[in-house]
Structure formats: C-alpha cells, structure tokens
Amino acid sequence: MSHSAEGAAHGSVKSYLIGFVLSVVLTAIPFWIVMTGNFSKATTFYSVIALAVVQIVVHLKYFLHLDFSVRGRMDTFAFLFTALIIVMVVGLSIWIIYSANAMMM
C-alpha cells in the first residue's frame, strides 16, 4: 500500500480489481436469482438482501478503505456515525409522514 502526504491509505490495483470482481459477482447472482424465478419469493427476497449487505461490506472495504485497524478506526467510526444519522433522519421522516397521514384519515 502506498500512502499520501496526509498518511491516508490508498488501495492497490490488485485490491481494486478484487473489489470490482466481487461487486460484479455480487450483482450477477441476485440478477440471476430474480430472472430465473426458480426460487420462492421469500428465498429470492432474503437472498437479494443478504447479497446486498455483503456487497455494501465489499464496497466499504475495497473502495472506501474502511477497516477497524488502529489507523482506520476513526474514519470507520465517522462513517458509521454518519450512516446512523442518515438512517435516523430518513426513518423518523417516514414515521412522521405515516403518522400524519394516519391522523388525517
């Protein structure tokens, strides 16, 4: 791994290629599952969700270089805090809109 002047770690070509191949495979599998229709709706749904979560982890590791090493821990915590705030804002907004709609009916 090479490091910039600020000390931030950047990926190598090998790590980017690994991430790319994993991303393509993790996109092709759910596409195949949905297009063939050989599985039940529940199996299809849970397979797509599970592979989406795995793909998120692949993107975080290989493209955003987030990890729990001593050097990357603060970046990872900052990302997780940001994700938490976004989930809260979106989730609470949906809850407020649903509640307002229920009260208006």
UniProtKB/TrEMBL annotation:
Coiled-coil parts of chain: none
Entry keywords, A to Z: Cell membrane, Electron transport, Membrane, Oxidoreductase, Transmembrane, Transmembrane helix, Transport
GO cellular component assignments: cytochrome o ubiquinol oxidase complex; plasma membrane
Molecular function, one GO term: cytochrome bo3 ubiquinol oxidase activity
UniProt topology in membrane: Multi-pass membrane protein
Pfam family of the protein (one): COX4_pro
Subcellular location: Cell membrane
Main location: membrane
GO biological process, one term: electron transport coupled proton transport
Keyword Transport in annotation: yes
NCBIfam families the record matches: CyoD (TIGR02847)
Subunit-level organization: Heterooctamer of two A chains, two B chains, two C chains and two D chains.
Function: Cytochrome bo(3) ubiquinol terminal oxidase is the component of the aerobic respiratory chain of E.coli that predominates when cells are grown at high aeration. Has proton pump activity across the membrane in addition to electron transfer, pumping 2 protons/electron.
Official protein name in the record: Cytochrome bo(3) ubiquinol oxidase subunit 4
Organism in which the protein naturally occurs: Paraglaciecola polaris LMG 21857
Gene behind this protein: cyoD
